[in-house]
């Protein structure tokens, strides 16, 4: 019996990166996983990437779960509403897990430029894609969980605190998702539903591999350009973190908290795809990043 056999999950923003890693790991654990996003075969989003939600769903099924791809633009309220109405009908009202991983902010982030010199439209669009979408998605997902008096919502973020992340608009987006989890946890506490935030460390996503001109087989070569790359982790690591949380009968004790892949690996003893256990928290402290 797989730990999440019979469970229903939605990974919002599951096209690539952390979302894909989470969806596939949930599939390995036996879950039915709805994968949403904007890029489908024959119709790509402005992210200009080749990965599609159909590919992710197929990987979910191949790993042992049931992957279902549904194109949803989470900035469009009616699309989100219709999607959860579909889930309610198809799953008889069951929804056990919502992972909010909607992002779309990479091409909108202008590193090394003060906020008043950045295009304001890019900064505002980032908030639209990375915060408002999470609010809309949770609004329509939560009633299914409240009705069954159980469920888990995981907000995917970057970082475990409110520290400045090197760009005003990026910081605002990532910190806001943490506060969404904290606030939802309080409202949902009487209803048996858990909400928390989760961050990866240095995520070795498809886009990051492309940026450094390496593949998953040759990724260590990227350390010649950035030594910190040696502490990177694959999307599988955060996927296994989500499975550990979703499988924990005492997960409600973590409601309102902001957690990390490395911290949860310490607690649950899961590894990354290659058997390693990257610990960005210890590494960052050793490097003096946050002093």
Short recap of the structure:
This protein has nine helices and seven strands. With 291 residues, it is α/β, with parallel strands linked by helices. It starts with 7 loop residues before the first strand and ends with a helix.
Describe this structure in words.
It is a single chain. The chain has a single domain, classed as Rossmann fold (3-Layer(aba) Sandwich). Helices cover about 40% and strands about 15% of the residues. It is built from nine helices and seven strands. The protein has helices at about 15-30, 55-60, 75-90, 120-150, 170-190, 205-210, 235-245, 260-270, 280-285; strands at about 10, 30-35, 65-70, 95-100, 150-155, 195-200, 260. The chain has a seven-stranded parallel β-sheet, sandwiched between helices. It comes from Brevibacillus brevis (strain 47 / JCM 6285 / NBRC 100599). This is Putative dehydrogenase.
Coarse structural class: alpha/beta
Shape: globular
Spatial separation of the terminal alpha carbons? 46 Å
Number of strands: 7
Secondary structure tally, helices? 9
Major sheet characteristics: 7 strands, parallel
Strand/helix succession: EHEHEHEHEHEHHEHH
Can you tell me the residue ranges where pLDDT is under 50 for at least 5 consecutive residues?
none
**Do you know the CATH topology?**
Rossmann fold
CATH homologous superfamily annotation: NAD(P)-binding Rossmann-like Domain
Helix content: 40-55%
CATH architecture designation: 3-Layer(aba) Sandwich
Give the strand content. 5-15%
InterPro entries: NAD(P)-bd_dom_sf (IPR036291), SDR_fam (IPR002347)
Protein name: Putative dehydrogenase
Pfam families: adh_short (PF00106)
């Amino acid at each position: 019996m797989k730990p999440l056999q019979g469970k229903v999950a939605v990974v919002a923003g599951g096209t690539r990166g952390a979302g894909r890693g989470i969806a596939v790991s949930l599939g390995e654990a036996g879950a039915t996983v709805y994968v949403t996003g904007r890029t489908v075969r024959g119709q790509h989003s402005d992210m200009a990437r080749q990965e599609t939600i159909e590919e992710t769903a197929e990987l979910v099924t191949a790993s042992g779960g049931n992957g279902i791809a549904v194109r949803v633009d989470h900035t469009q309220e009616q699309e989100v509403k219709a999607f959860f109405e579909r889930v309610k009908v198809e799953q008889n009202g069951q929804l056990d897990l919502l992972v909010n991983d909607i992002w779309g902010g990479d091409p909108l982030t202008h590193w090394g430029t003060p906020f008043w010199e950045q295009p304001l439209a890019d900064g505002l669009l980032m908030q639209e894609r990375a915060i408002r979408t999470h609010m809309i998605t949770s609004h329509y997902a939560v009633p299914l969980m409240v009705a069954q008096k159980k469920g888990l919502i995981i907000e995917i973020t970057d970082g475990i605190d409110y520290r400045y992340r090197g760009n005003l608009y990026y910081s605002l987006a990532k910190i806001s998702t943490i506060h969404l989890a904290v606030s939802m946890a309080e409202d949902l506490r009487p209803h048996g539903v858990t909400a928390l935030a989760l961050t990866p460390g240095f995520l070795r996503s498809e886009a990051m591999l492309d940026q450094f001109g390496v593949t998953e087989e040759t990724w260590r070569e990227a350390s010649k350009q950035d030594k910190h790359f040696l502490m990177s982790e694959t999307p599988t690591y955060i996927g296994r973190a989500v499975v550990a949380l979703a499988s924990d009968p005492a997960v409600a004790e973590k409601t309102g908290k902001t957690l990390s892949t490395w911290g949860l690996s310490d607690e649950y003893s899961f590894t990354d795809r290659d058997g390693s256990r990257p610990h960005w928290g210890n590494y960052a402290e050793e490097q003096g990043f946050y002093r």
